[in-house]
């Protein structure tokens, strides 16, 4: 009996080592590396643009919404939220294309369409030049920009999942979000550089436009990375078996309403927590409290460090229970939420940085593993549509709306306490949903 336990012990460790070696061999294949690069480029563009709106919020609010500081920033965040509201429609549109015509064509089309509105945002006249027309045009092009983004990340999740070797599904899906780290880093460096080299008057006149024009050039680069993509093996097999999407979208909603509802429940906290940490905290710490810029950059660096770990947590997810990892992350966040609040309240920098680091690592675990939980709830013929609609519904509509609500409550009560109460409530709801995951049944269905 003891000998059997020893054999099992050594077999488990050798299996783990073999899995690690197999995981790193992915980069020995140029084709696999190009696939990962092309797919992660979508999240790079998404978070490059998101962070532009975060970083340029004072500039955009001043140029397009001339009013009191609070009202201008609130309108800018509302504009930020409108862009997110467009994403479910983009998820539906490109999801239907991906399920009917192919994942490859949907992903190429989405990045081509992204180029035009991003470029136009950099050319818009300001309120001082054309009056109310300026914010209206900004809303229109922001909406058009958000439509293809709605199909980007969900499409990347599905594509990498369907191309992944057996035993590496979560690891491959985890790479899709790595671009968000690169996008934030590029956005931060580029914005700081432009602001540093240009005089303030020149910067307000046209310097801020450079960021959006650079974004359109990045989208063009993304097209060249994707134009030679191959179709996924699972989609090709589905076509051969004549199982392509045939039901209408409304029938799809009715048939998979429980799966969509589950996605919304157990993923509710992730976007709220992420947007709060990368949007609300920076605005509050730099604008309301007057936290030094260097310290703010340290906090953002910690957030980026957590994002880099997506593939690592995806790899661990292939070996350990996803359910336990997700529940552990949510519980850990719930335990540190109010200590984090008091560390911000009393500006205890060392403790604040440590808690922000733990917070970002836990968010990274959720963001690395949650897409896989979406994917396994939908079969191949409706996978792109299901993931595109569900992911954008909870991330875009609920996540961004709650983020704007949090900012409103912070401004009204001049306190971060309502923010942490809302975060705690969302964490409780997600914890309830995660506890109901049946890993064995859902993983067999995938």
Can you characterise this structure?
The chain is mainly α. The chain has a single domain (39-445), classed as Up-down Bundle (Growth Hormone, Chain: A), CATH 1.20.1250. The chain is 84% helix and 0% strand. Helix 2 packs antiparallel against helix 8 (133-163) and helix 2 (30-55) packs antiparallel against helix 12. It starts with a helix and ends with a helix. 47% of the residues are buried.
Q: How many beta-strand elements? A: 0
Largest sheet: none
CATH homologous superfamily - what is it?
MFS general substrate transporter like domains
CATH architecture: Up-down Bundle
Helix residue percentage: over 70%
End-to-end Cα distance, whole Å, is 36 Å
CATH top level assignment = Mainly Alpha
DSSP summary: helix tally: 23
Low-confidence stretches: 1-28
């Amino acid at each position: 009996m003891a000998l059997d336990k020893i054999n099992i012990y050594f077999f488990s460790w050798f299996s783990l080592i073999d899995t690690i070696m197999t995981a790193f061999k992915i980069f020995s294949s140029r084709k696999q590396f190009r696939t990962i690069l092309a797919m992660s480029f979508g999240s790079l563009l998404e978070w490059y643009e998101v962070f532009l709106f975060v970083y340029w919020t004072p500039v955009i609010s001043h140029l397009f919404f001339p009013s009191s500081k609070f009202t201008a920033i609130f309108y800018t965040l509302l504009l930020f939220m409108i862009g997110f509201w467009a994403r479910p429609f983009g998820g539906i549109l490109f999801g239907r294309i991906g399920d009917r015509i192919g994942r490859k064509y949907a992903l190429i089309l989405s990045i081509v369409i992204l180029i035009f509105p991003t470029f136009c945002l950099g050319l818009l006249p300001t309120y001082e030049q054309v009056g109310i027309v300026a914010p209206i045009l900004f809303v229109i092009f922001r909406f058009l920009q958000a439509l293809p983004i709605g199909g980007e990340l969900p499409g990347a999740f599905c594509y990498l999942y369907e191309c992944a070797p057996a035993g590496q599904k979560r690891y491959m899906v985890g790479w899709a979000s790595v671009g968000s780290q690169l996008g934030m880093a590029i956005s931060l460096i580029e914005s700081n550089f432009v602001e540093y080299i240009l005089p303030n008057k020149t910067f307000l006149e046209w310097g801020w436009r450079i960021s959006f024009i650079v974004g359109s050039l990045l989208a063009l680069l993304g097209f060249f990375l994707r134009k030679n993509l191959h179709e996924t093996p699972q989609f090709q097999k589905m076509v051969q078996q004549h199982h392509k999407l045939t039901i209408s979208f409304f029938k799809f909603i009715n048939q998979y309403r429980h799966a969509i509802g589950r996605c919304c429940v157990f993923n509710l906290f992730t976007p709220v927590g992420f947007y709060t940490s990368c949007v609300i905290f920076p605005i509050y710490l730099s604008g309301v409290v007057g936290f030094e810029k260097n310290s703010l950059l340290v906090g953002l660096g910690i957030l980026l460090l957590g994002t880099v770990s997506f593939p690592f947590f995806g790899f661990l997810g292939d070996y350990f229970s996803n359910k336990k990892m997700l529940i552990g992350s949510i519980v850990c966040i719930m335990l540190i939420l109010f200590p984090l609040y008091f560390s911000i309240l009393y500006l205890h920098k060392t403790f604040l940085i440590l808690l922000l680091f733990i917070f970002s690592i836990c968010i990274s675990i959720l963001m690395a593993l949650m897409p896989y939980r979406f994917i396994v709830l939908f079969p191949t013929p409706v996978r792109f549509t299901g993931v595109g609609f569900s992911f954008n519904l909870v991330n875009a509509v609920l996540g961004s709306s709650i983020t704007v609500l949090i900012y409103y409550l912070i401004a009204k009560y001049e306190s971060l306490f309502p923010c942490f109460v809302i975060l705690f409530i969302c964490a409780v709801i997600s914890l309830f949903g995660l506890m109901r995951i049946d890993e064995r049944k859902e993983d067999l269905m995938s």
